[in-house]
Structure formats: structure tokens, C-alpha cells
């Protein structure tokens, strides 16, 4: 450490994670730090918003959450060692700005501020303004012992011994920044295409086609997709929704309500999108209601005692056998608590009787199925995660028209359910998923899962199901999808979509739907999977190439693609040694995290993790620490 008690840390990444870390450093400094700390915040994009939430993006793009469900501030529910400094949710902040007359609001956001409501999905630019305000507030509230220096630049390398200063080289700065610690808060990793994607790209070049590999949608140049061109789209989640918006409204199309039905009027500049995926259906719409009864006391079955018992077992853990039954039972308990409490007229047993029998039965056992059938007469009122996950399982269709009609019905039913507070039990399950997510992270961190359970079940199925059920698009987006289908701008391929190059074109189909779709373009509508080996970020690549940062490889040689970290987030090098001077945090590290904003009053794992990292930084840098 410096002799004058002045130390420094570089935080690479100034998006929500990076500025959230700065807030936690500032909050914990009075307790843990006795010197002077300089925080160098490094990002070529604006601090607060960062790359994903930058203001300079299409005003047509929305958030995927309602304003009342988004916050950058800890509240009393967060169980962490650091102090809680509460503040407004996005909804509360917007209401305060509106009440104050909108002073300081960008001109092109005034109309949105005037109409903002806690349950009205906002644009990403409104969230960008909130994040900018949050960051400016963090700077205003810094204790005297902490200062923040912003570098609108790209970190391209870090060198230095584990026991000494770290030199951070920036793309636009001649001299490196010399700091005492480095924290990587860089979010999702951009990667080079996989070998299979490279082959598709080469095929496209050879045949004058267009191929778009997985990427963050708003960063993609879509100008090569021509009006009227048949474009195959592989992916039916949130990346697809952004793609849909940018290629329709973004090209001058417009929606109008005619006779109670949303109608799309094309501009003539849209391509024709043929969409498919493994499920063959879009993500479930976000619920438009709140719970109508107190939330179930969770965790109950997948609780701390159960986790302690599981992680103490001598044999490796299997997700489906050991974890999912407890998780599903907790999620189901949250669902049925809301159903029995808020909608007792749709149940046949006294709730205490149901509770006792439910607690005694194993998940998915004949006893539990019989209990639910007896207590909940309507099938649509029963919690069925398998049916939710695979709504088209076992179905085949005589032609594409029949499949389109079925998919329209599926989407319409989902929209009606997610807008009807009579189905508020779905919100119970939604919140139960959030609790299980946090509990599962503790089991993952224990290292007790088999490699297959870790990669195929947790990183694969669980994250996919969580996103599909709990992180779907706003309902209006699915109404727009139906309008686009009726207008002939989009069509649907089917479940278990396959794509192959054939005859100088891209060809797609589904085993459940007769016929094939032929296109001159193929878009992979999803974010790339984690891959340290193929990461294009210059800092990650430099550390990787020297063996100072490695991809997580599990027993048996299976790789997760994630950055290997231990303890609070220390980087691990190729020799298996941790570096206490370098910490990484975020969704592409081996300590899994949801790539979403923390929800208020949920003891959000993201807040707990950020607080722990901040405290580790301060304790390691404190000049008086032995």
C-alpha cells in the first residue's frame, strides 16, 4: 500500500453493476476504511447507463420490467453486512420528477414522464435517465475518504504481480493507470462466432446471403436485411422482440386500434420474418397485476436447512433428483398460497388442510397430484411447470395455417391470463422463482453439482425456464406480434426448429409442422453464450492469453464458458492460484447472477453480492489492515 494511506481501485465497467459497486463502496467506507480511496471508473459509455442502457438508442425499445419493479437502492429486505441507504424505485423517481414540474428532463422524454405509471413499461431511455440520476447522486454523497474519477475509455490490459500494484492500460491514454486493485464489472461478453456460426457466415458470403450471429440486438447493423426479404429468425425471446420492433416500427410501420383489434400498417420497408425456437412459442408475457394476498413465507422447502443437508452429502448433487423437487415445491407453495388466500372460491379444501397435506407430500408424487386435483377443480388453476415449459409437447399440426391459429390462441390466452388479476397466483409463482434463484446460487457456489447438472440443467434448462416464465416481454409486445402476423409481416416455423444451408439458401422447418421455410437471411435472435475462449473484449483476451484469467472447466473436462472466480470473486489463473488484487463480478462469472435489475423488497442476490465485493475491496485496501 502507499505510504501516505492513499490507495486506488479501478472498476472496469460503468454500467449499473459498476456504479452500484461504487455506491456500496461509499456506503461501507466509513465503517471499514481509514485512508483515502480513489475509484477509477472506466467505460467508453456513459457512467450509470453503460452500454446496454445508454441514452443513444432507439426510443422504440422498452424495458422488460415495470417501473415499480426496478430499483438501484437497497431496502430493509436485503440481508447484507453493509448499511442500507434506501432510495426511490424507477416509478417513485419518475413520479417525483413529474411532481416537481419535470425540471431537467430531456425534451424528448417529457411526454413519457407525463404518462409514466408504476405499471406502464418504460422506454430504455427513461431507465437511462434514472441511472444517470443515480450515479450523480452517488457522486454527491461520497464520504470525504472516497473520490471517483471517470475515464470514458476502454481498458485493454492489466498487468502486475498478485502482491503489488496493478497497471491498467487504456486505449486512448498514453500512460497506464497504476492502482492497488481492479474489479471487472463488464457484464455480458461479446464473443467471436463459434465454428458452426463461422460455417454459416462463410456459406452466406459464398451465396450472397445474410447471416447475423448471436449479439446484443440494438448493437446490430440491420440495414443489410432488405424490404420483403425472407428472414429466418432462430429465437423467440427478448432479443427477438427487440429485432421485431426495430424491423417494423423502426422502419416506419405503425399500429392502430380498429374495431377493438390492434392492426399493423406496414411501411413496405419490412422484411418477412419467419420465427421459430425450441419451444416454438414466445416467452410468457409479464404479469400486469400484483399479489392480492400476503406473499408466502419462503424459502420453506428449499430452505437453508435443506441446502445444508444437500451440500453435506458425500456424493455429487443431481439437479433433477436433488434440487428441482424442492425448488418446484417452494414455487408451487407460493402459487397455491396466493390461490387459496386470494381466490378461495376456486378451491375445495380449507387452506390449513391443504397446507398440511402439501407439506407432507413429495413433489410430483401421486399423493400430491391427487391432493391438487381434489383441492383445485379447474385445471387452469393448477401449477404445472412441465406444461408451462413445453406447451406444444406432443402436438402436431396438419398445415402451417393450423399451427398459426393454435399459436394465436396460445398467445391470446397467455395475454388474457397475465392481464387478469384473477390469476394472481401466477405472480406468486413468479416471486417464488426469484426466491429459488437466490437459494440455488448457494448450491452452485458450493461446487457440489455434477458437471452435467451444472451445465445442462442449471446453466441450460433452469436459466431458460426462468427467463421464459419470469422474464418475458411486456404484454403489448405480444399484441403487436399478433398484429404483425395478421398483417403477413411475420410467420411461425414451429417447435424444435431446425435450420440448414441448402441449395444456396437457408432452409428451416419443424417436426410438428409440415413444409419448409426458405430464406435469404438467418438471424440468431439471442445473446451469445458465455465463452472466455472466444471473448473479444481486449482486456479479457489479454488476461486469457497470458493465463491470468481462465474459463471455468468442471470435473470431466466440460466447460461452462464463464470466468473462473473464487471467494468473493477473485480471479483464478491457469495454475489455479487466486489473485486478491483482481476481482470479477457479473453474469458471465462462475458465481452465477441474473442479468436483470434487482427487484425491491426481495432480498435481491445482486445487492448482497455487490455489497460483499465492496466490503472486500475496502478491507483489502484499508491502510490499517494488518
CATH architecture of the largest domain: 3-Layer(bba) Sandwich
CATH class of the largest domain: Alpha Beta
User: What is the overall shape?
Assistant: globular
Secondary structure class reads: alpha/beta
**What number is the mean pLDDT?**
95
Helix content: 25-40%
| End-to-end CA span | 11 Å
Any idea what the CATH superfamily of the largest domain is called?
Answer: FAD/NAD(P)-binding domain
Describe the largest sheet. 7 strands, mixed
Regions with pLDDT < 50 over 5+ consecutive residues?
none
Overall structural domain count: 3
Could you write a compact summary of the structure shown?
With 626 residues, the chain is α/β, with parallel strands linked by helices.
Characterize the structure shown:
The protein has 626 residues and is α/β, with parallel strands linked by helices. The chain has 3 domains: 6-190 and 530-621, FAD/NAD(P)-binding domain; 195-283 and 474-524, FAD/NAD(P)-binding domain; 304-470, no CATH class. It contains 17 helices and 22 strands. The protein has helices spanning 16-32, 90-99, 110-115, 124-140, 195-206, 238-247, 304-311, 319-342, 351-360, 366-375, 385-389, 400-419, 425-446, 451-470, 475-486, 538-545, 605-621; strands at residues 6-12, 36-42, 146-151, 155-159, 166-170, 177-179, 181-184, 210-212, 230-234, 254-258, 261-265, 272-276, 490-494, 498-502, 505-510, 513-519, 521-524, 551-553, 559-563, 565-566, 570-572, 578-584. A 7-stranded mixed beta sheet has the order 3-2-1-7-22-21-20, covered by helices on one side. The chain is globular. The model has no long low-confidence stretch (mean pLDDT 95). Pfam families: NAD_binding_9. InterPro entries: FAD/NAD-bd_sf (IPR036188), HpyO/CreE_NAD-binding (IPR038732), L-asp_N-monooxygenase_NS-form (IPR052189). It comes from Actinokineospora spheciospongiae.
Amino acid at each position: 500500500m502507499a505510504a501516505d494511506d492513499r490507495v486506488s481501485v479501478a472498476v472496469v465497467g460503468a454500467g449499473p453493476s459498476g456504479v452500484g459497486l461504487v455506491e456500496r463502496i461509499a456506503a461501507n467506507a466509513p465503517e471499514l476504511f481509514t485512508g483515502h480511496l480513489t475509484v477509477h471508473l472506466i467505460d467508453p459509455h456513459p457512467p450509470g447507463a453503460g452500454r446496454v442502457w445508454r441514452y443513444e438508442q432507439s426510443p422504440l425499445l422498452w424495458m422488460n420490467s415495470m417501473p415499480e419493479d426496478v430499483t438501484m437502492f437497497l431496502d430493509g429486505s436485503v440481508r447484507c453486512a453493509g448499511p442500507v441507504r434506501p432510495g426511490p424505485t424507477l416509478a417513485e423517481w419518475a413520479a417525483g420528477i413529474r411532481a416537481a414540474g419535470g425540471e431537467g428532463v430531456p425534451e424528448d422524454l417529457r411526454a413519457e414522464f407525463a404518462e409514466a405509471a408504476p405499471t406502464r413499461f418504460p422506454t430504455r431511455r427513461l431507465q437511462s435517465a434514472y441511472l444517470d440520476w443515480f450515479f450523480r447522486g452517488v457522486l454527491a454523497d461520497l464520504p470525504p475518504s472516497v473520490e471517483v474519477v471517470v475515464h470514458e475509455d476502454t481498458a485493454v490490459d492489466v498487468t502486475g504481480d498478485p502482491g503489488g500494484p496493478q497497471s491498467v492500460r487504456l486505449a486512448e491514454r498514453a500512460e497506464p493507470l497504476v492502482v492497488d486493485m481492479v474489479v471487472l464489472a463488464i457484464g455480458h461478453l461479446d464473443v467471436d462466432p463459434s465454428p458452426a456460426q463461422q460455417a454459416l457466415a462463410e456459406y452466406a458470403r459464398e451465396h450472397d446471403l445474410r447471416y447475423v450471429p448471436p449479439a446484443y440486438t440494438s448493437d446490430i447493423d440491420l440495414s443489410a436485411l432488405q424490404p420483403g426479404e425472407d428472414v429466418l429468425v432462430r429465437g423467440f425471446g427478448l432479443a427477438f422482440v427487440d429485432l421485431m420492433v426495430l424491423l417494423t416500427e423502426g422502419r416506419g410501420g405503425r399500429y392502430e386500434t380498429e374495431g377493438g383489434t390492434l392492426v399493423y400498417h406496414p411501411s413496405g420497408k419490412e422484411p418477412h420474418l419467419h420465427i421459430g425456437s425450441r419451444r416454438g412459442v414466445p416467452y410468457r408475457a409479464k404479469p400486469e397485476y400484483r399479489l392480492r394476498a400476503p406473499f408466502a413465507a419462503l424459502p420453506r422447502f428449499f430452505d437453508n436447512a435443506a441446502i445444508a443437508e444437500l451440500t453435506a452429502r458425500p456424493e455429487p448433487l443431481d439437479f433433477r433428483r436433488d434440487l428441482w423437487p424442492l425448488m418446484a415445491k417452494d414455487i408451487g407453495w407460493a402459487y397455491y398460497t396466493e390461490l387459496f388466500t386470494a381466490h378461495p372460491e376456486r378451491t375445495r379444501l380449507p387452506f390449513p388442510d391443504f397446507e398440511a397435506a402439501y407439506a407432507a407430500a413429495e413433489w410430483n408424487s401421486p399423493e400430491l397430484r391427487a391432493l391438487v386435483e381434489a383441492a383445485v377443480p379447474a385445471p387452469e388453476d393448477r401449477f404445472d411447470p412441465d406444461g408451462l415449459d413445453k406447451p406444444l409437447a406432443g402436438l402436431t399440426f396438419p398445415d402451417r395455417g393450423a399451427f398459426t391459429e393454435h399459436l394465436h390462441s396460445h398467445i391470446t390466452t397467455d395475454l388474457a391470463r397475465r392481464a387478469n388479476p384473477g390469476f394472481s397466483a401466477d405472480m406468486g409463482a413468479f416471486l417464488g422463482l426469484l426466491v429459488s434463484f437466490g437459494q440455488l446460487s448457494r448450491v452452485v457456489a458450493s461446487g457440489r453439482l455434477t458437471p452435467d447438472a451444472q451445465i445442462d440443467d442449471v446453466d441450460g434448462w433452469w436459466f431458460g425456464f426462468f427467463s421464459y416464465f419470469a422474464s418475458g416481454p411486456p404484454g403489448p409486445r405480444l399484441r403487436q406480434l399478433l398484429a404483425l402476423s395478421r398483417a403477413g409481416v411475420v410467420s411461425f416455423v414451429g417447435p424444435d426448429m431446425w435450420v440448414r444451408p441448402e441449395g444456396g439458401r437457408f432452409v428451416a422447418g419443424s417436426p410438428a409442422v409440415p413444409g419448409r421455410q426458405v430464406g435469404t437471411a438467418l438471424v440468431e435472435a439471442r445473446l451469445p453464450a458465455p465463452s472466455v475462449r472466444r471473448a473479444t473484449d481486449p482486456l479479457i483476451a489479454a488476461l486469457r492469453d497470458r493465463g491470468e484469467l481462465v474459463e471455468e472447466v468442471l470435473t470431466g473436462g466440460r466447460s461452462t464458458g464463464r470466468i473462473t472466480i473464487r471467494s468473493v470473486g477473485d480471479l483464478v489463473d491457469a495454475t489455479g492460484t487466486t489473485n486478491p488484487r483482481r476481482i470479477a463480478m457479473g453474469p458471465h462469472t462462475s458465481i452465477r447472477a441474473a442479468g436483470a435489475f434487482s427487484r425491491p423488497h426481495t432480498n435481491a442476490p445482486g445487492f448482497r453480492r455487490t455489497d460483499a465485493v465492496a466490503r472486500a475491496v475496502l478491507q483489502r485496501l484499508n491502510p490499517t489492515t494488518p
